[in-house]
Amino acid sequence: MKNLFIGIDFSKQTFDVSFFEKDVTGEIFYSRFSNNKEGFKHLVKWISSNTGVRKDEWLFCGEHTGLYSLELPVFLLKHNLFIWLENPLQIKRSLGIKREKTDKTDSLEIARYAFRFQDKAICYKLPDKIFTSLQNLMSFRGRLVKNRQELSVAAKEMRSVFNRDKTARYIYEQSMHEIDSLNKKIKGVEAQMLLLLDDTEEVKTNYARLTSIKGIGMINALTMLIYTENFTRFTDCRKFACYVGVVPFDKSSGTSLHRGKRISRLANIQIKTLLTQAAKCAVVHNPKLRIYYQRKLAEGKGMKIVINNVRNKLLQIMFALIKKGQSYMDGYENQLEIKLV
Questions:
Q1: For strand 252-253 and strand 257-258, is the pairing parallel, antiparallel, or unpaired?
Q2: Relative to the CA of 108, which of 67, 168, 329, 332 has its CA 20 to 30 Å away?
Q3: What is the pLDDT of residues 231-250, one digit of tens each?
């Protein structure tokens, strides 16, 4: 049972903290700390000096906001303290209408959220080092790809006029030089990611299973392994499909609103985009999925709807292969209980 509720509002250099005791009405403590090891130590000392509640009854709660919210949980977990990182949108929607927003009020609202929903609190679990490394490399690769795309667009624009303008020719040549350099760097990052897989046989084996599916390439497979943490964070295909945003949901109310089933905008856009690319590739290279795709289009289904169906089927195949511990082969859909209807 938790008796002390601590709300944390993270920012780049600092974090704001509010806390209160379960059985003490109206007494709220607030302070701000540096977002570093010294600040973490001061945080624990400050709380200890203002409460007699045992440390095993403390509940820290904060928003999972990426890099800025990851160092403190590492420190707290090493000291056997309970830290719960919640989805920021989940906290925001639970607060109702708000007129004031400051770091101080945000930290207090998070503490109150932890108190109200303490039965749903899940202690943050540090991901294995391989997934953290893969995620960092994937993010770095994404920045390189974005830079390459920007230079590529400029280079194409310059190419149409460089014969008439020396400056345009210079920009085009320099852009192409930088693009070649970025291509080499991107290949180097990809090689480093594949090299990391050699450190964990189970992850490497599941990577091979995923890439055996026609349409699932290296980036799709690695992204799946990162976000599912080698299919341990998500073990249910439908739950992951909801997280990705490819499951259609109904929306109706009374007699006036009957929108029909549509996919939700609440989604992991990165994975959803990659799955779209995989689906388009699969309907070209996977005979059964190609037949399914063509049949549904002939029935009058919209292309976006059919592609979304293919995205779902690819997810079903991936989860089924991991569960059964086998690689994909043509004609395995029935054995994997994947219905192409």
A1: antiparallel
A2: 67
A3: 998 989 999 999 999 988 77
The two structure tokens encoding residue 249: 């949901």
252-311 pLDDT, tens per residue?
A: 666 665 566 777 777 889 999 999 999 999 999 998 899 999 999 999 999 999 999 999
Q: Letter for the amino acid at 223? A: T
* CA dist., res. 332 & res. 300, Å (int): 28
Distance of CA 35 to the CA centre of its chain: 23
Residues 6+ apart with CB under 8 A from 134: 193, 196, 222, 225, 226
Residue type, 174: Q
* Gap between the Cα atoms of 123 and 128, Å rounded: 15
**Closest to 311 measured CA to CA, from 260, 243, 218, 225:** 243
DSSP secondary-structure letter at 213? S
> Does residue 73 contact residue 85 with C-beta atoms inside 8 Å?
yes
Q: Which amino acid is at 48?
A: S
State which amino acid sits at residue 328. Answer: Y
Per DSSP, 169 falls in state H
Give pTM, 2 decimals: 0.83
Dump the DSSP string for 264-297.
-S-S-HHHHHHHHHHHHHHHHH-HHHHHHHHHHH
Q: Which residues pair with 62 in a beta bridge?
A: 8, 85
Q: Decide: helix, strand or coil at residue 215.
A: coil
